[in-house]
Amino acid sequence: MLQNLETLDRLQEIEFDSINRGYNSVFRPNRLSLGLVVPIETYPGSPVPTMHQHIKRVRLAEKLGFAAVWLRDVPFNVPSFGDAGQTYDPFVYLGLLAGQTETITLGVASIILPLRHPAHVAKAAATADVLSRGRLLLGVASGDRPEEYPALNLPFGDRGSAFRESFDYIRHMGERSPSFDNGFGSPNGSIDMLPKPTAGKLPLLITGGSQQDPEWIARNGDGWMTYPRNIPVQERIIRSWRSRVEAIGGAAKPIMQPLYIDLTEDPNISPQPIHLGFRLGANHLRAYLKSLEDVGMNHVALNLRFNQADIETTLKCLSDEILPDFQG
């Protein structure tokens, strides 16, 4: 009992830094928010989605009260990977969504830093952040598809060090006329990059290990994107994350994960495993998400790729039966 009270006290003490509109609305201490992975459609039999009604569904997600939509960075349709994401370049698509929405947070999970020059990433991301009035969340990763690296004449084995240098370069671009030396270039303070992010820096969320030491991730990221696991394991992972962040001092940092779901018409269908998620009814989904919230998860990005029911019907069900427990 004493241990539970001590845990409750620690949870009540958690506060996140304030960064931009998107970060502040999606990540709330001791609360779970819900987002959707784009494309918001079913495409289990093909790696390539139709993108049918893609803008209409993002707008519907915003109207229904989802906290965020998440794009992915998939430069090439790699057969072994089996998923081409939303097919559109994430930064071009972010610009479109910034102009087509008003309040929903626009996230990327995640930009593969070693495959792009960080100056381009920094400028494109800051532009999307400004155009959306501070609604951008930028997930970053080192990449897990070896086939993409030779296509760009880049060494797969060096992606860890390239990730760190790219990350550092992007951080510097939030400064005024930065001066630093870096493997990607050496701005000397005589030039500047515009626009600047709305909060003076981009919210950078590191995905998985990204070939980095866990302490480096805790020190440098504004949050961490991890993978779905069973609740007891996820609880241990979250405790370890919080301990690492606490050890470096400063504010707490959020943690998030994706979750594939196939939402059934019957709300009482028990969970049945699918790829990185479950086929289940609304009552069991609510209970599962509550369990994640109880162990400290801050955001879940729901992926409907394997959903068998009509997408609009599923979104309405999620809005009516699930979202009210994870808003406000």
Automatic annotation (TrEMBL):
Q: Does the keyword Flavoprotein apply?
A: yes
Q: Which UniProt keywords apply?
A: Flavoprotein, FMN, Monooxygenase, Oxidoreductase
Which Pfam families does this UniProt record tie to the protein?
Bac_luciferase (PF00296)
> Where does the sequence pass through the membrane?
none
Indicate the segments forming the Luciferase-like domain, all copies: 41-250
Where does the source fall among the domains of life? Bacteria
Under which name does UniProt file this protein? LLM class oxidoreductase
In its UniProt entry, the species of origin is given as: Roseofilum casamattae BLCC-M143
